[in-house]
Amino acid sequence: MAPTTSGPPRAYNDVLEAIGNTPLIRLNRLTEGLQKSSVWVKLERCNPGGSIKDRIGLQMVLDAEAKGLLKPGGVIVEATSGNTGIGLAIVAAQRGYRCIFTIPDKMSDEKITLLKAIGAEVHVCPTAVEKEDPRSYYEVAARLASEIPGAWYPDQYSHLANPLAHLLSTGPEIWQQTEGCLTHFVATMGTGGTITGTARALKELAEADGSEPPRIVGVDAVGSILKQWFEEGTMGEPHTYKVEGFGEDFIPPATDFSLIDEVHQVDDGTCFRWARALARREGMFCGGSCGGAVKVALDLAERADAAGEAAMIVVILPDAGNPYLSKFYNDEWLVENGWDPQDWE
Ligand SMILES: Cc1ncc(COP(=O)(O)O)c(C=O)c1O
Q1: What is the pLDDT of residues 23-68, one digit of tens each?
Q2: Which residues make beta-bridge pairs with 317?
Q3: Is the C or the N end of the chain the one with fewer CB within 10 Å?
Q4: Candidate list 36, 42, 53, 242, residue with the active-site label
C-alpha cells in the first residue's frame, strides 16, 4: 500500500480538535521474514493526552453536556486505570470542570502524578479486592459521585459513548487509511469499547462496500475472565496480573461479544517483552498492552504467511511508554519481579 502523505498540515482551534486522526504505521523490523503478510499499528499515543482514551473522554463529555448531566462548573467522577482519567481531564481543563478519579494501587506513580498535573484529584484504592467491595475503585467512585453535589459519573464500562467514539472515529479512520483492504483487526479488551465500536464500524463499512469484513481479534490478559466468557459463556476465577489497562474480573456491559471472532490471552512477560521490542526495533515507545497486541498480530501474520495468504493486520497500540518507565522499562524492576531482560535481547 502506498503511504498517504498528501494534505496540508492542520491548525486547531483547541486541544480537543487534535484528538483522533492518529497515524497508521507499518512494522518493518519485527516482521522481517514475512513474505506476503503485513502488520500495521495505529499509534494512539499521538493523541494529545497520550492514549486512545482521549477519544472516549471527549465523546462521553459531549453526551453528558447534551443530556444536561454535566453543567458549567460540574464535577466529573470516574473509576479509571489512568488513561481515561487523562482523557477526561484534558476535556475538563478545556471546558472548566473539576475532576475526581479513583485508581487501583497497581497503577504506576507516573499516571497518578500526571492526573494531578492536569488538575485532577486522585483517590488510590486497593487492586486485590472484589469489584463489589466498598474499597474497590469502582465502588469508591460510585459513592463519591452520589455524595458530591453536581457530580457526574460517566462509568466507561457501561457508557454507550465509549464504543460510539470508536464507531465514529477509530473505525472509519482505519477503513480510510487501509482503503478498506485490512483482513484482521486486533485490539486489547478492557472496557471493550475500542473493539466493539471499531469492529461495528469496520463491519458496516465492509457491508456498504460489498467486501469481506476483517476478522475481529480480541486480546485478553492471563488472569482475566474475558476469554473464557467469550469461548464458553462461563466465569473463570480471576487473578491479579501486572500489565495495565486490559483484561477484567467482570463482564463490561460496553463489550458486544457478538462482534468478536476470536480472543487470545497474553501473559505479563509477553506484554513487557514485546513492548520493549517495539521500542528498540521499531522506534515506537508504547505501553504493555501494545506489546501483547503486537505479539498476537505477529503470530497471526506468521500463520497467514505460512498458508500463503496476504494478510493485512491492523493493531491498536493504546498508549505511550512514558507511564511505565519505572516499571517494565526499568531493568531492575523486571529482575525484582522475576524476569531477566537479557533473555529478551
Ligand atoms: C493501556 C490500555 N490498553 C488497553 C485498553 C483497553 O481498551 P478498551 O477499554 O477500549 O477495551 C485500555 C483501556 O483502559 C488501556 O488503558
Answers
A1: 999 999 999 999 999 999 999 999 999 999 999 999 999 999 999 9
A2: 43
A3: C
A4: 53
* C-beta 188 within 6 A of ligand 1: yes
Interval between CA 37 and ligand 1 midpoint (Å): 26
Model confidence pLDDT, tens digit, residues 82-113: 899 999 999 999 999 999 999 988 887 888 89
DSSP code of 286?
B
Nearest to 339 by CA among 243, 246, 248, 219: 243
Ligand 1: atom nearest CA of 193 is 10
- Residue-wise pLDDT for 153-167, tens only, equals 999 999 999 999 999
Tell me what pLDDT residue 264 has.
Answer: 98
Q: Does domain 53-152 have CATH number 3.40.50.150?
A: no
Q: Is 192 in the pocket of ligand 1 (CB under 6 A)?
A: yes
Kindly list the domain boundaries of the chain, sorted by start residue: 15-46+162-344, 53-152
In single-letter form, the type of residue at position 94 comes to Q
Which of 41, 42, 43, 52 for a ligand 1 pocket mutation test, highest count of atoms within 8 Å of Cβ?
52
Q: Is 180 exposed, middle or buried (0-12, 13-18, 19+ CB in 10 A)?
A: middle
Please tell me if the CB atom of residue 292 comes closer than 6 angstroms to any atom of ligand 1: no
- 3-class state of residue 14 by DSSP: coil
Q: Is 83 in the pocket of ligand 1 (CB under 6 A)?
A: yes
Nearest CA to ligand 1 atom 7: 190
Task: Report strand pairing: 262-266 vs 151-152.
Answer: unpaired
Identify the CATH assignment for 15-46+162-344 out of 3.40.50.1100, 1.20.1250.20, 1.10.20.10, 3.30.70.20. 3.40.50.1100
- By C-alpha distance, which of 62, 69, 104 is closest to 83? 104
